[in-house]
Amino acid sequence: MEEQQASFDIPALKARLLGHLGPHADIYPVNIEQKFPRILARIVDLWGTPALDGLLSDLMVSDRPGRQGFPGPVAMDLFRLSTLHGSLGFTPPKVTGTGWSGIDDAELFKHGLTKGRQ
């Protein structure tokens, strides 16, 4: 089902996204623009935030049964945007291990003691 483009300012959305893409303008999502302008608007609004990575991931992999998925060209647009956005470092890296992995000395931290503090 294609969405109505009339309710979206496509030229303004395109200009904003092209500004975000900069030297990567060649991956501008023409197929998303044409078929899913609502998604284009969300991408533009969320660009540069960790929330966009979540949105793109949710769009690419649905956990709802019976979903048909996007046409191939739209899926490729999503994949390219996701890859670029992830490579630009807008999302902090995932910490692996325990909840104390990012702390130099977990025992001292838990007791309120840090380096330089007595």
Automatic annotation (TrEMBL):
Name of the protein in its database record: Uncharacterized protein
